[in-house]
Specification:
With 203 residues, the protein is mainly α. It has 13 helices and no strands.
Length: 203
């Protein structure tokens, strides 16, 4: 992930120790980002790193659990256990965990969640979670992707507009190029940036 050069160069033992006791050079306000960086690196340490993370997917310490959930799974080897871990976290009464599970499923291109459950999230007041749920549905049901993205591009939720730009660029959906380019002048800065960057893929 690249935020901390020390993490990029660390050994497995250092990563494990820093996970348990963050170094003094990590600012308290950056603790959760630091854990994500550690988890990402551990996930690249073959099975040893992923097995370490798996110990924390039910942790009572929420930052541990969140970071572990995002990086414990092997995209090339989705198991029944993987599915159960994700479902258990999703069904917790915690929007942060729901967000993490939806994000993880998208990154794994694995879609075990019931459509009805995701459709409920689409209408949540939390702008990011609502937008992420739309992205999940775009990938889980590709036959509906273009229509869903068109609606997102004109949504009042700026996160839906932003994330739709990213999907259009990532998947090179040329038929939505014109609608995407229009958002280069969106009133929301993040949307303008996403539209500009992703419009560049079509030049």
């Amino acid at each position: 992930m690249g935020l901390y050069p020390q993490v990029d160069q660390a050994s497995f033992l250092e990563l494990r120790d820093w996970w348990k006791n963050s170094p003094q050079w990590v600012k308290p306000e950056d603790y959760e980002v630091f854990l994500d960086n550690i988890a990402y690196r551990l996930s690249k340490e073959s099975s040893e790193g992923k097995n370490f993370l798996k110990r924390y997917v039910y942790s009572v310490h929420l930052p541990y659990r969140r970071s572990a959930l995002c990086f414990f799974a092997d995209p090339d080897h989705i198991t029944i256990e993987t599915r159960q871990i994700l479902l258990d976290a999703f069904h917790e009464d915690n929007l942060l965990l729901k967000n993490d599970v939806v994000w993880t499923c998208i990154n794994l291109t694995y879609f075990p969640l019931e459509r009805q459950e995701i459709e409920i999230l689409v209408h949540y007041p939390d702008a990011r979670l609502s937008a992420l749920a739309e992205v999940y549905l775009c990938y889980a049901f590709p036959e509906e992707r273009v229509i869903r993205l068109q609606k997102c591009l004109s949504s009042e939720n700026p996160r839906k507009r932003e994330y739709a730009c990213d999907v259009i660029g990532d998947e090179y959906i040329e038929e939505l190029k014109i609608e995407l380019q229009r958002l280069i002048n969106d009133p929301h800065q993040d949307v303008r940036d996403a539209a500009r960057i992703n419009a560049g893929f079509f030049e």
